[in-house]
Design a protein that fits this description.
- This protein is 43% helix and 15% strand.
- It has 395 residues and is an alpha/beta fold.
- Helix 2 packs across helix 11, helix 4 packs across helix 11 and helix 5 runs parallel beside helix 6.
- It is globular.
- The chain binds 4'-deoxy-4'-aminopyridoxal-5'-phosphate (PMP).
- The site of 4'-deoxy-4'-aminopyridoxal-5'-phosphate (PMP) has 13 residues, from helix 5.
């Protein structure tokens, strides 16, 4: 078959290939980016499902508006207001996961050859999605405090990108969180250079002790002109359930209108049923209690993983313990005379019954071959201890 030229820009991710190996019985996987299903508020979701099907079955089982189910747009508007960001229900659309919001941004903004700046490393699916639209992707360096804003500004001036994509809070895979001061500078740079910044925020609510600084969207109220340069992607996947496939996009009016038009051709609208379930769930006042449990559980797992990693690998592995999210981002140092190649280590680890993801695919270019990502979200404390001990044996 003669497939479209655009497919030449992308390949199946190395991570997918790795996932094929994970079927092995008994393997402990830190590779996926899945929330722990044991933490889903099944009772609350069941109550919400029952309520929407008894009270209002017609509209929720019917076709609906591309922009989203109105009560949910209102619910998301309130949810964002509680996080310090004012947005009218008409200023957002509901998307089929935030992945679709990213796809719609790619579709509406990126022509073949356009430059896009992302963090190095960044969320792999965004690299793949933007490449499908022909983006030339440039990585900006990061540290534990998020993107290096001086370097980001230089890259923007040099490349005049179509957009900059950032995951400012508990990044995937980096776990890094952009400081308040850097957030303000990102907004100032966006205004000064007239650059669209896309803020992807699926993890901001998953903090351990302290909430991350306000989102770029919330801060945009204090930086004149910056709201016009900002798109925001939100999601219920990590706070409620990813299987519901409900996310949202907040963007300046013209971008939102074009994204809505593209969504019409793509899936007409996000499932009304799952949107209505989310909308009703938000009215049950259960989310805060659910999030308290998720935060405490992930905080404990991250603490246990940090200790176990230090015990098993010592100075052979360097990492900054994350303050939220779902991931450890680490680097093999080459200490103890060992190779610092994470892909080779990954193969040995799988042979020892434990899996993680080598970090290279998360870089758009110039990968750090010593880097790797471990998720602490899905396995319980006992399996984290056991899995990291196996990692020590594999080393
Ligand atoms: N952005 C980032 C940074 C992610 O890690 C993910 C999921 N792992 C998504 C977006 C997409 O999530 P969803 O489509 O489930 O909302």
């Amino acid at each position: 078959m003669q497939f479209a030229d655009r497919l030449q820009n992308v390949e199946t991710s190395a991570i997918r290939e790795l996932f094929k190996l994970l079927g092995k019985p008994g393997i402990i996987s830190f590779a996926g980016g899945f929330p722990d299903p044991g933490l889903f508020d099944v009772e609350g979701i069941a109550m919400a499902s029952q309520a929407v099907l008894s009270a209002n079955p017609g509209p929720v089982l019917q076709y609906g508006a591309t922009e989203g189910y109105q009560p949910l747009r209102e619910g998301i508007s309130d949810f964002m207001a509680a996080k310090g960001a004012e947005v009218e229900p008409s200023g957002l659309i509901v998307t089929t996961g935030s992945q679709q919001a990213l796809d719609l941004i790619g579709k509406t903004m990126i022509s073949p050859g356009d430059k896009v700046i992302v963090e190095a490393p960044t969320f792999l699916a965004t690299i793949q999605c933007f490449r499908l639209y022909g983006a030339h992707i440039i990585g900006a360096p990061i540290d534990a405090n998020g993107v290096d804003v001086d370097r980001l500004e230089q890259l923007i001036v040099e490349h005049k990108p179509k957009l900059v994509y950032l995951v400012p809070s508990f990044g995937n895979p980096s776990g890094a969180t952009l400081t308040l001061e850097r957030r303000k500078r990102v907004l100032e740079i966006a205004v000064r250079t007239g650059t669209l910044v896309v803020e992807d925020d699926p993890y901001g609510e998953l903090y351990f002790d302290q909430a991350p600084p306000p989102s770029l969207l919330a801060l945009s109220a204090h930086v004149p002109g910056s709201r016009d340069c900002l798109a925001y992607c939100g999601s219920f996947s990590k706070i409620l359930s990813p299987g519901l496939r409900v996310g949202w996009l907040i963007a300046p009016p013209q971008l939102l209108a074009n994204a809505t038009m593209c969504k019409q051709f793509s899936d007409a609208h996000t499932s009304n049923l799952t949107q209505a379930i989310c909308a009703h769930y938000l009215t049950l006042s259960r989310l805060d209690a659910t999030l308290d449990v998720v935060r405490a559980t992930y905080a404990e797992r991250a603490r246990v993983m940090a200790q176990a990693l230090t015990r098993a690998l010592g100075d052979a592995l360097a990492f900054d313990a994350p303050q939220g999210g779902m991931f450890f981002w680490a680097r093999l140092t080459g200490a103890q005379g060992q190779s610092a190649n994470a892909a080779e280590f990954s193969k040995r680890a799988i042979a020892h019954g434990v899996a993680f993801v080598p970090g290279a695919p998360f870089f758009a270019h110039d990968p750090d071959l010593s880097s790797l990502r471990l998720s602490f979200a899905t396995a319980d404390v006992a399996r984290i201890e056991e899995g990291i001990a196996r990692l020590g044996q594999a080393f």
